[in-house]
Amino acid sequence: MEKAYWSAKARALRPYTAGEQPREKLIKLNTNENAYPPSPRVTAAVAEAAADLRLYPPSDGGIFREAAAQLHGLDTTQIFCANGSDEVLAQAFLALFDPDRPVYTLDVTYSFYPVWADLFGLELRTVPLDKDYAVMPGSFAGAGAVVLTNPNAPTGMAARPGLLREIIEGTDGPVIIDEAYAGFGSHSALPWVGEYDNLLVVRTLSKSYSLAGLRAAYAAGQPHLITALETIRNSYNSYPVDRLAAAGAAAALRDEAWHKECCGRIMKTRDRTRQALIDLGHRVLPSEANFLFVECTDPDAASMFQALRDRGILVRYFGSGRTRNFLRVTIGTDDDMDAFIKAMEHIS
Length: 348
Ligand code: PMP
Known about the structure:
Layout: H1 8-12, E1 27-28, H2 40-50, H3 63-72, E2 79-82, H4 85-96, E3 103-106, H5 113-119, E4 124-127, E5 146-149, H6 161-170, E6 175-178, E7 199-204, E8 217-220, H7 223-233, H8 243-253, H9 256-279, E9 283-284, E10 291-295, H10 301-310, E11 313-314, E12 326-330, H11 334-347
Helix pairs in contact: 2-8, 3-8, 4-7, 9-11
């Protein structure tokens, strides 16, 4: 009875599991939110926009689209805005990928990709990272379509610019680069969108701009790609970016000084946390994101996850595949990370 009225599609789906949003007070290092608040200009802009919610918002994100275009020196026709990058990515999959052209991605990467592939009837093929979790040169050779997270998640590791170019130039069809964790020191492919007619770069304001709760993200690419995404949007939901999100996102993108300062602090905390964990004897992958991927052997990752939780610290444990002995740990404030390092010292 439970699924009696479900469509065959809904019955067959295995949806993505989002990280826990606990009600109790924990040191929350599990969903890669920013440790610091957004620019104060965001609150002011949202409050102002909240004073008039009578009218529908502009379908294309309006001032948000303009601010993103301005930030990157692009035309607004090169920007597509939506309600978080999960939505941008889902629409990009629908707009650019086809069932008869396999989509290539990495074997260790964002676990939402197979869910969308399944939902949209696409074939997703994986190429392995090397033993150190780096992208291997030539590994995408012959691919017709690619989706890549850079820096990668959950490893935190970024590919070199030369390798990114090799992948974009070596792919016949579209290449989507998900730069959810841009801002924390990695190289970005975004300045190349004018050079490559098959490149779409996706950015979110959830991480480096501290706006996971607002739901705002965008894609940058040549107008012929952006029009494809708009075609999908206008066949699904004409108003994905509400007035509050558009106002807040535009204000955040226009306060680059705040953004830089905040990301700089996180990068500093990340690097000293990584060193402290290495000193404790852990293998920690090099990270250009706002999280660390930490291998646990004694105790194993599952036990370490529970022991941390018992001490009031919540991290992310995926528990499958070749990274089942790793924990992903978001970089919090300095105090959060001191508490985390101390707990790791006691548990190990
Ligand atoms: N891409 C990657 C690699 C992510 O880790 C996330 C966060 N879960 C997203 C996209 C989606 O982020 P949002 O929808 O908050 O923009």
